[in-house]
């Protein structure tokens, strides 16, 4: 009783043993009743001792669970320190190997100095440093656990103690694992409703995963500490079985939550923390391959989310961004957003060639931009400031998003175990998602809008062409980061081949859309004049001595003039002329064929005057737009011939080819055969005579 009162449980147990072995036999000779009383008291004393040490054990179990989270975070911090140390060591080794390869004096080959032993030694130091940092489990007081185990062992109850310990610790672990599954850890579950996070399983898991995972990791760090202390509580086999259950639950929660996360940053944060947790338990002897397999399973999820997130941003930039020309006023902005992506040579005069595969590239990387591509050997000086680009501000933004994606993907692929061929294929797939699908898709979406202005279609074409030009700089960026982060050689062409073709096709579709919009104007004019008679019964209206063109021609000329003016400022002269030549060619061809077509049965000088007025109005619009009138030359030569006084010279050898090279004798013959004199016009007799003479000469030819 005295030993028990002073909590000297070992002394009390020894006293009970002495009573049983020495005193009860001696007392039993004199007093059987006293001996029986002592026999009955001994089990009650033992039970009381067991209750007291079990209370201490229960208090220790509660404390162990409360400290498990801190122990887990300490172990994860130690794993982080080991990872950083190994990363620094890898960089040092790469630098050392680069400097230690040299050719000997006789030119006999390369001398190599392997650093494997140093890496092994430093890795051991990193592990040792990590264990020293893990003060959560190592600093835990195991005295109550040892006292209970020893007391139970002295009383012959070791199996009961082990069963009790395993039962309670397993119950604690399953309670912790239920919080992982539910995504409601103690540290973040209470805030799950903030900002609508409770409705998003990915957000809910993200809010609680650190505390929940750290709690589970800490549980096994504590158990590893208990095993090392020699307590006969939970066997190593039982601990490994519990770890198998925990690892399966953590892996399932990781896969499930990663499958519903919509932010690639969330997946990456959770992956990294779980990977550190796996390193922490692996450092104390547990097999973390099931967690590694789960991490590998989320690899494709992360890469897909990363590519889709960047693609969505690109679509948003191209769909909602302003199409006004990008203006640069500072050198820093020029370096970061223009020169870094080879866009500085796309000044007015070169934008058109960029969309047709003639993309001169000269790239100088920005010193302060980590996402900028490496400098090109052919980098040229920056343009003079202020500089007005032929493309919009959306182009540099898309280039920045693509460059950032390349860096993020290469950095991620450098941290996972993946064959080089698969890594290159994953990177190529991501680039195609961004520049071969998202960017051209955004351009096509904008082109599908009703009543698309010509200027907008042309600017979309220039943006797509500029993005195609930037692919050369982005190729160098990809090659640089793949070697720096992954130590993998990549062929830039295999990454950007599809993107280049898709962007070139998108640029051409936008240009065709602009041309088709102007062709619609010409088609409206043609349809409005399809049944027009060129042999009117009355002379046309005259204003200031000139025949007045039709209202339809006035509308066509104004619409074409506005379209020409909207694109003239940011297209090169060659591209400007090439784009405008399509509608002008259609209009000129129709005017040149109006008198010779089957729909026109006859014509007279009054109709010819009207045709001349139509042509003159269109020529005025062309001259105002500073365009060549070659597309209207045939129509002008035909009108000039019919209005001239030289029809009788058509029989002269080579006259028609010299004076009217765009006209053929067959077409002139068809037109002259349709000539009719105006009614009640006495002045047309000589014209009729000249036309008949010309017809005889042409028929003889």
What this model shows, in words?
Residues 101-135, 184-198, 348-370 and 375-380 have low confidence and may be disordered. The radius of gyration is 45 Å and the shape is rod-shaped. It has helices spanning 2-5, 9-30, 32-100, 116-133, 135-138, 143-154, 158-182, 201-229, 236-260, 264-283, 289-297, 299-320, 331-337, 351-354, 394-415, 420-447, 454-486, 492-528, 551-568, 573-593, 605-624, 633-643, 655-659, 665-673, 685-700; strands spanning 102-103, 110-111, 325-328, 387-392, 542-543, 546-547. Helix 7 runs parallel beside helix 9 (236-260). It is built from 25 helices and six strands. It is mainly α. The longest helix has 69 residues, at 32-100.
Please tag this protein with its features:
single chain, 701 residues, mainly alpha, two-stranded antiparallel ribbon, 25 helices, rod-shaped
Query: What distance lies between the first and last C-alpha atoms, to the nearest angstrom?
Result: 145 Å
Mean pLDDT: 79
Largest sheet: 2 strands, antiparallel
Q: Which structural class do the helices and strands define?
A: mainly alpha
Q: What is the total tally of β strands?
A: 6
Unreliable runs, pLDDT <50, ≥5 residues?
101-135, 184-198, 348-370, 375-380
Total count of helical runs of at least 4 residues: 25
- Mind telling me the C-alpha Rg? 45 Å
Proportion of β residues?
under 5%
- The spatial strand order of the largest sheet comes to 1-2
| Overall geometric form | rod-shaped
- The level of helicity is 55-70%
